[in-house]
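Record type: monomer structure entry
Structure origin: computed from sequence
Chain ID: A
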Amino acid sequence: MTLEEALKMIEKLENENKALKKELEYYRNRKVSGRKKHDDKWLQKYRDFEILYESGKTMVEIVEMSDFSRRTAYRFKEYYDRIHGGERE
């Protein structure tokens, strides 16, 4: 490979890199649709679950006392277990 070929290859790769950075910026800035994870509403429901769960209530009691579904309660429990290592306080 000669010096000229190397310089052409470098220029080609730099242009490709710029194009990829531009594409990456597009994906970083776009708005995603669907369920938003861990927004204020989610966090409030999770905290309500956390208070009930730490007070010793069973999952059935939590679902009956709250305004979220059984599936959501178990999703909160899974999240709680990941954060707290699976032990109740």
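Annotation 1: The first helix runs from residue 3 to 29.
Annotation 2: The chain has two domains: 1-30, 40-84.
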